[in-house]
Amino acid sequence: QQTLTGIVEENRRAIGWLYQHTEQLGFDRERIYLSGHSAGAHLAMMLLLTDWPELGLPEDVVKGVGAISGVDDLEPVRRSSGNGQGAREREEAEGMGDAEDAEALVLQGK
Questions:
Q1: More confident residue, 83 or 48
Q2: 28 neighbors 63 (Cβ within 8 angstroms)
């Protein structure tokens, strides 16, 4: 069973690998943007907020994120018994940080 922390770490490794192999893959490493919806939006924001220099990469590996209906507070998810895997541990939810800490432009339609 995968944890939220494990999912974020796995995606950090994937983005790092992509960044380091852009030449052989044929794309511009200066144009890495992410998008996601719901939990995917939260994941994209966690990748944007990653301390990339701590992982040996430039601070701005992820240039931007399109986050749609993202989860920015994991506490209700943690307490939910219907989240598919049982309630999340408090330490893990708190350790994920807050996606709402990112600088963002918020657009809302009618």
A1: 48
A2: no
Asked if residue 100 has pLDDT above 60, the reply is no
Q: With CA atoms as reference, report the closest residue to 29 among 38, 18, 37, 45.
A: 18
Q: Please give the C-alpha separations between residue 63 and each of 6, 33, 49, 52, 59, in angstroms, as whole numbers.
A: 23, 5, 11, 12, 10
Helix (H, G, I), strand (E, B) or coil at 66: strand
Residues forming beta bridges with residue 101, ordered by sequence position: none
pLDDT at 5: 87
Q: What is the 3-state secondary structure (H, E, C) of 20-42?
A: HCHHHHCCCHHHCEEEEECHHHH
Provide the 3-class DSSP secondary structure of residue 65: strand
34 beta partners: 65
Alpha helices by DSSP H, 1-110: 4-20, 22-25, 39-48, 75-79, 90-95
Identity at 32, one-letter amino acid code: I
Q: CA dist 71 to 39, 45, 96, 105, Å? A: 6, 10, 12, 16
